[in-house]
Write a structure and sequence with these properties.
The complex is a heterodimer. Chain A contains no helices and twelve strands. Chain A is mainly β. Chain A is globular, with a radius of gyration of 14 Å. The mean pLDDT of chain A is 95. Chain B is mainly β. Chain B is 0% helix and 57% strand. Chain B is built from no helices and eleven strands. The chains are: A mainly beta, B mainly beta.
């Protein structure tokens, strides 16, 4: 079974600072994928970034980067130069399979608030 | 076209009503999902359709009835709901194989009175 743990229920950061959101995972699979999603108050889940277990480089997408430490089973999201629009709920997720279909296993989420 | 659309955006219904939620994608994705999300919680998987066939039902009560008329469209029929069914209902889709990232619609906020 796969499990995602996000230990920070809420974080408060000043605008323009960098922020790191923590995510640890547990799986017995050799091949797996990790994702981060952003959910603003409007409700839509927005895909941010993906890291494959065999990817040697940390994934980056604009201001988002994923600090992947395989031995420690962590996949932290780093947002550089935070903006007010980054205030949202952030979910870490892992690819799983159930009865032949792909599914996502989500963590409990971290609510990020960017202060002006 | 890289989006998933959902209608309606908001829905208020009584416990005796019958209503439907609609989800559409034109990305050629062959797996589609319904999730239920309560406030401050992660989405909970309800149903998975693969190639228009129901492959997963996560023990969802029969008052929720999914339907996949074609590869682009997913419906969720609602009947005799309870107030505790009030939640955000999210639809998502993904390629059947590959990285597995799911693309979500904006959701339907459902209130059951």
């Amino acid at each position: 079974a796969q499990k995602i743990t996000q230990t920070q229920p809420g974080m408060f950061v000043q605008e323009k600072e960098a922020v790191t959101l923590d995510c640890t995972y547990d799986t017995s699979d050799q091949s797996y994928g990790l994702f981060w999603y952003k959910q603003p108050s409007s409700g839509e889940m927005i895909f941010l970034i993906y890291q494959g277990s065999y990817d040697e480089q940390n994934a980056t997408e604009g201001r988002y980067s994923l600090n992947f430490q395989k031995a420690r089973k962590s996949a932290n999201l780093v947002i550089s130069a935070s903006q007010l629009g980054d205030s949202a709920m952030y979910f870490c997720a892992m690819r799983g399979r159930i009865q032949g279909a792909q599914k996502l296993v989500f963590g409990q989420g971290t609510r990020l608030t960017i202060n002006p | 076209d890289t989006e998933v659309t959902q209608t309606p955006k908001h829905l208020v219904m009584g416990m005796t009503n019958k209503k439907s939620l609609k989800c559409e994608q034109h990305m050629g994705h062959r797996a589609m999902y319904w999730y239920k999300q309560k406030a401050k919680k992660p989405p909970e998987l309800m149903f998975v359709y693969s190639y228009e066939k129901l492959s997963i039902n996560e023990s969802v009560p029969s008052r929720f009835s999914p339907e996949c008329p074609n590869s682009s469209l997913l419906n969720l029929h609602l009947h005799a709901l309870q107030p505790e069914d009030s939640a955000l209902y999210l639809c998502a889709s993904t390629l059947h194989r590959g990285r597995g990232e799911q693309f979500f619609g904006p959701g339907t906020r459902l209130t059951v009175l």
